[in-house]
Amino acid sequence: VFALRGCSFAVETVTSGGRLLEGADPQDSYLAFGEKLLRFDGQRLTCYNRNAEELWQYQAADGDGFVLSASDTRAALFSGSKLILLDERGNAVYNGVLEGTIAQVRCGLQSTAVELEGSEQLLVLDRNGAQQDAIDLSGASLIDFGFYSNNDLLWTLLINVSGLAPSSRLDIYQPGKELVSSYKSDTQLYYKPLFYQDDVYIVGTEGLDLVAGKSTGSRSIFGWQYAGSAVSGGGMAVALTLRDEGETPSMTRIFRGGSFSDMHLPTGCFYLLLGEEGLYAVGSQTLYRMPFDGGSMESYAFRYTVSQVLCSFSGYMALATTDGQVYLVKLP
């Protein structure tokens, strides 16, 4: 698993062990919620602050197989045709049943997009769960979708296989109004759009396309795959790893400031995290920090053996240990 997003020696740091999330199970679902953390055990949704203190809980119906989705300000629980929307304080602003089986949900700042199984429309709901828009998906297959910007712009990533060769398309909508822009490729398959202010990047199987913003063009990334991104130096930084290296890559290629640079990784690192000023790499015993400016690599020993990084948010990581504990640690 790869993801990408910044020690004082306080209780929560890597070298001190961090803060234990009491009662947390590594098998639960964990998602970033702005500067907070959400944990869902299948029945109870719990929100924590960065000190691992519980802020609120929401109890879902027992045994209904709910799935969690969240943005910085909204959370959603869905199962079958049931949908629950929660605000930042854990209040249910919508609790109802849709006309169809829910396949996936994406939350924005105020809006929520819902994909229904077998439907050629993507539903867009407002902050109270009322339908705001229905995006026509006919003639193409939906690969992914989501929101960005303070205006809750909705993006959809589509693939069309009806022609001689597959084509990819990224569409951007202002829900309830119009299609804002559309970007198509007949030479590669798109799989990850990235946004920063007016800049739009799309990661594909062959290239990294800069399709809007200060500069446009395509950069070859043949043989590489997306491993994460973060805002850095007033722009977008993108990390790539070699496709054939599996879960513990030996190096990463960073696109930042319009150019690529390569970083060699310590042996055994299984999780990458981009910060504003450098790259973090996580191994089972050690956290490494490698500055973008070429400074020396720093290493921080864990007090336990890390088996998994469950979530990263706002300069913190939730770590699972080999003995089944979950710790919240502050990055150096």
Describe this structure in words.
- With 332 residues, the chain is mainly β.
- Helix content is 0%, strand content 56%.
- It contains no helices and 32 strands.
- Strands 1-32-31-30 form a 4-stranded antiparallel beta sheet, with no helix packed on it.
Note the main attributes of this structure:
332 residues, mainly beta, 4-stranded antiparallel sheet, disordered N terminus
Topology:
Blueprint: E1 19-20, E2 29-33, E3 36-40, E4 44-48, E5 54-59, E6 67-70, E7 75-79, E8 82-86, E9 92-97, E10 102-107, E11 112-116, E12 121-125, E13 131-136, E14 141-148, E15 153-160, E16 167-174, E17 178-185, E18 190-196, E19 199-204, E20 207-212, E21 217-220, E22 224-232, E23 235-242, E24 251-256, E25 259-264, E26 271-274, E27 278-282, E28 286-291, E29 298-301, E30 306-313, E31 316-321, E32 326-330
Antiparallel strand pairs: 1-32, 2-3, 3-4, 4-5, 6-7, 7-8, 8-9, 10-11, 11-12, 12-13, 14-15, 15-16, 16-17, 18-19, 19-20, 20-21, 22-23, 23-24, 24-25, 26-27, 27-28, 28-29, 30-31, 31-32
Put the structure in a nutshell.
The protein contains no helices and 32 strands.
Going across the major beta sheet, what is the strand order?
1-32-31-30
* Helix run count: 0
Mean of residue pLDDT?
92
Which class of secondary structure composition applies to the elements?
Answer: mainly beta
Overall shape: globular
Overall radius of gyration:
20 Å
Distance between the termini: 21 Å
What percent of residues are in strands? over 45%
- Strand tally, please? 32
Q: What summary fits the major beta sheet?
A: 4 strands, antiparallel
The helicity comes to: under 10%
Contiguous runs where pLDDT drops below 50 for at least 5 residues? 1-11
